[in-house]
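quick one before i forget lol
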Amino acid sequence: MSVTLNHRKSGHGEPLVILHGLYGSSDNWSSIGRALEGRFTVYIPDLRNHGSSPHAPSHTYQDLSDDLYQFFVDHHLSRAIILGHSMGGKAAMMFAAEYPELIKGLVIADIAPKSYYLIDRPFTAVLQHEIILGLMENLDLTTVHSRKEIDHYLAEKLQDSTLRQFLIKNIHRTKENHFEWKINVPVLKKALISISSGMNSDWFDDRRPILQYPVTFIRGLRSDYITNDDIPMIKEIYPDARIIDIAEAGHWLHAEQPEKFIEALLSVI
C-alpha cells in the first residue's frame, strides 16, 4: 500500500522531481532545488521511512515506485524530469520503466542498475551501511542528552565526521523531549539486502532496450558506484544513455561539487 509523501515544492516551470538516497531527505537537496527553481517547479519528496514521510513495514523498490506514482497522481504531474541519487536513483529507474508516459527525462546520480550485494566480494558501502544501521539500532536514545553524545558514540566506528553529521541530521526531538531517529531504522536494516541488490540488470531483461526518454548518468570519479566496467551493461539497458563524470567528487557528488553537478544537470535537461 502506498503512503503519502511529505515534500518540498518551489519554483516555476516544467516539473522536476528529485529523489534522495538512503538516510537522506528533502532537506539534503534544498540547495540544489533552490538553484533550479528559476527554470523548474521542483518537487523533493521524503521517501517512505525517511524524513517526515510515514514509516511503513515494507521498503522495496516496488514500494518506492508505487509511492511515487501516487505522488504524481496527487500533484497532477506528467512529462516530468526525474533526478534520483543512489537508492533514489534505483527507485527512479523502476518508476520510469513502469510509467514511461509520465517521463520527460531521467537523470541518475552515482548509482548503476546492478546488485551491490555480493556475498563473495562484499561492496564496501554495503558493509558500511550494515555498521551504520547497527549503530543506530543499538543506541538507546532515551539515555542521550545531546547531539554531541551521539556523534561521540558514532565516532567509535565511523571516522568520517562529515558522514556522522549527515547521519545526525536524522535526529529530532519528540514531544516528550527525547531524541528519536526520523528514519525507520529497524525496517531499513531488514531491507538492506533488498536495497543493495534490487533493481539490478536482471530486472530489465524483458524491458530493454529503453529508448522512450533520454537518460543520463552522472558519476563522481572518486566513487566506485559506477565503474567503467558497468558502462556496457548500462548501455545494454539504455543504449542512448549519456555518462557525465565529475572530477574531485565521490558518491555525494551533489554536496561535494554542487556547482559542477548543477552544470552537468543543466546540460542535459
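fyi The chain has a mean pLDDT of 95.
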